[in-house]
Amino acid sequence: MKAFLICVLICVFAAVAIAADDPYEAALTALSQQHSHTNSNAPPITLEQAEQIALQANPEIRVAAEKVAMAEAHVSGAGALDDPSVMYRGWQVRLTKPWDYNAAMNMFMIGQSFPGPGKRMLRSQVATDAIRVAKADLDAKKHEISAAVRKAFYDLLRTADELKVHDEQAGIARLAFEAARIKYSVGKVPQQDVLKAQVALTKLIEHLVMLEQDADLSRTTLNTLLGRSPDTPLEVSGQHTGPIQVPTLAELKQLAVQSRPELMASAATIKQAQDEVTLARKQYTPDFSANVGYMLTPSGSQFRNNYMIEGSITLPWINRRKHESEINEAQAAVAERQSEFDAMRLAVFQQIQEALVRAKSAKRLVELYQDSLRPQSEATLRSTVIAYESDRTDILNLLDSQNTTLDVDYSYFRALADFEERVAELELAVGAPVPTSGPIATVSPKVAQ
User: Fold this and answer.
1) What would the mean pLDDT of 244-266 be, rounded to a whole number?
2) Of 11, 97, 154, 341, which is the most exposed, with the fewest CB atoms less than 10 Å away?
3) pLDDT value at position 14?
4) Domain residue limits at 64
5) Gap between the Cα atoms of 238 and 219, Å rounded
6) CA-CA-CA-CA torsion for 165, 168, 169, 170, nearest 10 degrees?
7) 405-445, pLDDT tens digit by residue?
8) pTM of the predicted protein model
């Protein structure tokens, strides 16, 4: 037994001594130098925190909020009276003494115009309708940004999980590489096995470069959505949720009619156009104006100080052609906005249908990877590792099994992220959180050890 242990130690030390000048050591060194994804010191944020930050700091949301504030500021002035006017009139001023106003007739007047009954209230109502439209647009923008945040967050989370899988698979590749070098040093395998193991390590480096590229792009997108500089350090924290049971198409359509902000905004524009029709018809109601004045007559007049009252009324019935044109134009605007609402509702239903089909397909893929492909590939990898360590298979089978497991793991996490993104698209199409049924299981990265 002692002799056997001594032989094993001699073989190991011999292999290490050979590896000291071995050019294949560069593959291990290169792989270890690529782990830059763990260098960030930024505190991780959850999905809820990311959405809250975006709702407060996203510039597009702020623009929509300012439009709401602008519409609200317009209401108080929409139904206000026109500005009062002040007038001075001087006549019978002698040309021989144009400066002698004591000999002239001087009149000072102040006047105010009054719109017909109901017009001011309708103008305020039209302005209030504009607030509803602006608020619905703000809600739509919030849903849009929230869905984009979820997509970017899950992309970044998926990349982080793939990097964890990569690290564990890299550990297996290192063990295979070292095992091939030791076996080659004692003459059990040809040098070709070592070269193949080196190629496998290089492939892992290639995977790592692409994963870090995806992470950087997702981080840039998420930072922009959060209203930050794209190069701000950012890490996320959370877990993927397992596939959930989504509602039926009929339930989603009913929810969309009640919740979709774009439909609510379109309905508000219809209400605004209808109020504008009523206001256009009100143009047949005459407007009034009143003036009160003080008159100073020339010196020597019997009544030098006088006052006057003046009133006027518009005659809209005479200008019927103009007002009928305004009414027809307002009615055409109602028909146009009703058609836009119908077209938008149909487009929303199409969007819901497409998102539901994608979500169901993504759910089936997640379940396929979770229940079948992933356990099978991990079991195959475990048995292949054991077989290679006991010289019952060659390096090609081990590398092929590892590549298969790696591809399945990557595809699994991509399917998870894709499903969560499809649910986000479905909620964006509906305009509200999608009610789910069934247990929700959290999923963490795990590979064969």
Assistant:
1) 86
2) 97
3) 39
4) 42-439
5) 15
6) 120
7) 878 887 888 888 888 888 888 888 888 887 765 444 444 44
8) 0.72
- Determine, yes or no, domain membership for 238: yes
> Tokens at residue 69, please?
């504030």
The tokens for 122 are 């309708």
DSSP 192: H
- Average confidence (pLDDT) over 300-327: 87
- Asked, for residue 175, whether it belongs to a domain, the answer is yes
Q: 186: how many CB neighbours lie within 10 A of its CB?
A: 14
Judge whether 34 and 205 are in contact, CB under 8 Å.
yes
The CA-to-CA distance between both ends of the chain, in Å, stands at 29
| Residue appearing with tokens 């009414």 | 327
Flag whether 111 is in a domain: yes
Task: Pull the structure tokens for residue 58.
Answer: 């996203």
pLDDT of residue 223 exceeding 50: yes
Q: How many domains does the chain have?
A: 1
CA 348 from chain center: how many Å? 17
Contact call for residues 313 and 286 (beta carbons, < 8 A): yes
- Higher-confidence residue of 185 and 342: namely 342
Burial of 133 (0-12, 13-18, 19+ CB in 10 A): buried
Provide CB contacts within 8 A for 262, sequence distance 6+: 136, 140, 344, 348, 431
- Mean pLDDT (the chain, rounded): 80
Task: State the CATH number of the domain containing residue 253.
Answer: 1.20.1600.10
